[in-house]
Amino acid sequence: MKSKKLVKSIKSSESTISVILGILVVVVVGILLFKYFRNCALTSRENRQREENIEITGEVGEEEKPLMPVPAKYMVVAGDSLWKISEKYYGSGYNWVDIQKENNIIQPNKILISQELTIPDVPVKSALVSNPQITQAEATEKPITQDKYTVVKGDNLWKICVRAYQDGYKWPEIAKANRLANPDLIHPGNVLVIPQ
């Protein structure tokens, strides 16, 4: 008798359970989609920042001569791209723009197998990575030479490291030496040990 009542009770609440499970599935899928698109956005933002930090130069140094004799003719094979071809000849993919310009290629990502390309005699281009986080004001601030530093308003570990080491990326060393639980939280008046 009791088991019949239990089965009847479960059957009558089946639709409620189905609705709750359906809502739960929708919420979980929504969270997963949100995380996926947020990671995609972060990755694309990081890639844009990397691209913005790269300055292309056309200067040729002693060791920056083309790897293969140029000018030359090259026959495109399967799997080639202008970047890869540029790396073969110049040792740097950044010269792909010169190959594109020399051959009047409108869509550089669409080159054809057996297409003959002229490889121009141009200087090797290389990337110079700049560090936009270090501003001119930070670079000219008074250097920290002591082994202890008293935090002032507006300081953060990055700025302190730029002044102490001329390298903001060393902030974990100061955080570790001072046993900072949260490196983002330093207050004016805190005395920090500056490892030398």
CATH architecture of the largest domain: Roll
CATH fold title of the largest domain:
Membrane-bound Lytic Murein Transglycosylase D, Chain A
Mean pLDDT: 79
H/E element order: HHEEHHEEHEHHE
- The rounded Rg comes to 30 Å
User: Would you state the CATH class of the largest domain?
Assistant: Alpha Beta
In the residues, how many domains can be counted?
A: 3
Q: What is the count of helical runs?
A: 7
Structural class: alpha+beta
Cα distance spanning the termini: 81 Å
Give the DSSP E fraction (strand runs of 2 or more residues).
5-15%
Number of strands: 6
Features:
alpha+beta, Membrane-bound Lytic Murein Transglycosylase D, Chain A, 3 domains, two-stranded antiparallel sheet, two-stranded antiparallel ribbon, 44% helix, 11% strand, flat
Task: Write a brief caption for the model.
With 196 residues, this protein is α+β, with helices and mostly antiparallel strands. It folds into three domains: 2-52; 72-128, LysM domain (Membrane-bound Lytic Murein Transglycosylase D, Chain A, Roll); 136-193, LysM domain (Membrane-bound Lytic Murein Transglycosylase D, Chain A), CATH 3.10.350.10.
Kindly describe this structure.
- This protein is an alpha+beta fold and 196 residues long.
- The protein has three domains: 2-52; 72-128, LysM domain (Membrane-bound Lytic Murein Transglycosylase D, Chain A, Roll), CATH 3.10.350; 136-193, Membrane-bound Lytic Murein Transglycosylase D, Chain A (Roll), CATH 3.10.350.10.
- The chain has helices at residues 2-12, 14-52, 82-90, 96-102, 136-140, 157-165, 171-177; strands at residues 54-57, 72-75, 116-119, 126-129, 148-150, 191-193.
- The strands form three sheets. It has a two-stranded antiparallel sheet.
- The protein is flat, with a radius of gyration of 30 Å.
